[in-house]
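User: My instructor asked us to take a sequence, write out its structure as tokens, and then describe one feature of it. I'm not sure where to start. Here is the sequence I was given:
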Amino acid sequence: MHEDRRFESVSEAPSFRDYWLVVRKHQWKILACLVFAVIMSGIIVFTTTPIYVAKATLMIERKAPQVVKIQQVIGETDEADESSFYESQYQVLQSRSLAAAVIKAQKLDIDAAFLKQSESGFSLGQLLSMPIAWLQSLLPQQAPISQPSSIAGIDSAIINSYSGMVSIEPVKRSRIVRIAISSPNPELAARVANAHVDGYIQHGFKLKSQANEEARKFLESKLGELKDRVENSEMTLNQFRRGKGIISLDEKENIVVDRLADLNRRLTESEADRIGFESQARLIKNRQYDSLPAVISNPLIQTLRSQVVQLEAELAKLSDQFLPGYPRVAQIKAQLEESKTRLAQQIKNVVDGINSAYLAAAGKERELRAQMDNQKSETFALKDASVQYAILAREANTNKQLYDNVLERFREISVAGELPSSNVTIVDRAEIPRLPAKPNKRLNLMLGAFLGLFGGLGLALVLEHVDNTLNTQGDAERFLWLPCLSVVPDIFTLPPGPAYTASSLVRRLPQGDVTLCLPTRNLESNDQHHLMISEVYHKLRMDILLARSDEPPKTLLFTSSTAGEGKTITVTNTAITFARMGSRVLLMDADLRQPSCLRALRMTEDEVGLSDYLANLVGLDQVIKATPIANLSVVGAGSLPPSPTELLGSKKMAETLGYLKQHYDYIFIDSPPVIPVSDAVVLSTVVDGLIFVVQGQMTPKPIVKEALAQLGHRHSKILGLVLNRVDMKSAEYRNYRHYYNSGDDFSSARLV
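Assistant: Let's start with the prediction itself. The structure tokens for your sequence are:
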């Protein structure tokens, strides 16, 4: 029944109930963290000096109101640089120079209230922040920026104290800025906030005035220099004019330039005429008279050509009808010859005219070109003089304009320095705060409780994570892949019941009968604890009986990982439970090194036992002893042999078990732990089944797993494990405690 269960792997993700069980398990630790955090928060809150915050509101424009149209010396930012402008203003508001100016103006360096605040004592909050500061000191630090010991006669320490009071709070997507001053003295906070605002405005005036004064002095020094340059440049220009005889270089007034332009125009026209006649002369040379424009456009030539065509057509027609001597044919021929002669003469006249015009145009072009070359020489000479003239004139004009601009700017700056305009407007002045801004007692206590709660939860999860013991039946089955046959509570963790002592492992009755090996009363009593433990072993008995489908195992080996896990009590109580149902049971103590079965039954240790029998020193009937419990016999360990493992692994041990199985219904063997020695491994090969006992919430998982690995549990006869001596006060067994505390009456329970 349980053989298939041992190989089932349960790998479910943790559920909310699992986390809840962790919380309930460590609830006192969580509560302790919560209480500690609340107490520490309360101590810090109620010992911290109240801080009052006074706020003044400003509106900072990028440009000051323009009273007159004069550009300021300090440049105005573009729209794209608006963010950098406001960042610069925020830095000015927090600057040390402004702080020194306000301190000096308000005489804070001799103000008792301000100095008392600067020299405030050591607080608990500073004490708690020391570990953080120490850790920060271990990190790589940038080289400290050296600061002057004083600014404007104000000590640097006082300025540092003042800077610690100031905080800037820009309002997003607006030009509003709030200046907050923090101080234990509300009146001082309001006074300093208003003084800081006024100091900032005066600081802006001062910066503007300084810039204007420096610019005015600079321009004043430059005006004299520029005036000399203007006078020198104009004198040089006039001397050049006299030397070259130049009155004006205006194209409309200069005869040379006008004549050159006229010659250039006439030469261009003559060249165009020559090119036109030259192209016609080329046609004449090629005898292409019909292509000449003058021929084409001459109406007389075109009329004569039409007559010639008509006469040729008429002559051809008459020649087909009449003989050459026919009068009409002769007449037409005469007319045709006359028309051709006239046509040739007219074309000759046109050609002669074109040739004459071409020769005239070429001659005119040569003459104009010669005049043009002469005029160019005169013009180039004039141009050379004009270049130097232009350089001198430009220099004179430049010096004159520069002098005029500087003079105008000098006058503007003189006027602008007297304008009291500012780009800063006070929206709200600071008022005396009535309530402290910090510490926020309610919020700090809530944060302390929150941190304490989550710190406790984190501690619980960490403790649960590092806990490597088997706490519940589910833990055992998930980690070991073995069925957990029973969970045996620690009797001392059960709810209070009738008085008993921890040393009373067994209760002896007057009749010599013995109950379970527990610190309780007899089995037939109404003791609630005893009945609960008895039911646990009854369940273990039922699981053993149903462990095999054909028949229950007759020889059972009980072992554990290490000593002290309760395997002896478990095997003894299991044997008692089987004996109480009428079966013949033999309890064999195979822990030859540290025997304890007889001591658990409160029986006298015999000098002979299992080791003596296996060594052939005594007979089997001499080592089997009857117990006060009916149907239960016991075989003690006997004397300590030199090699217990060889005796337990001998052939005689196996034969003895085979023989005893014929005379007893069940044989329960108590063996040594697996980790120290290999006796249990040897015995596991000659028994029908094995019960592995683990002390819950105590034995580490790796040790249990190592012990099972030595037993080869995947191929051995392990029926399951017993989780022994679990703490019923833990959260995992809350339902068990509820069951034990339910007050059910077990007096009528019939125990087999």
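For the description part of your assignment, you could build on this observation: The chain is about 55% helix and 10% strand. Try explaining in your own words what that tells you about the chain.
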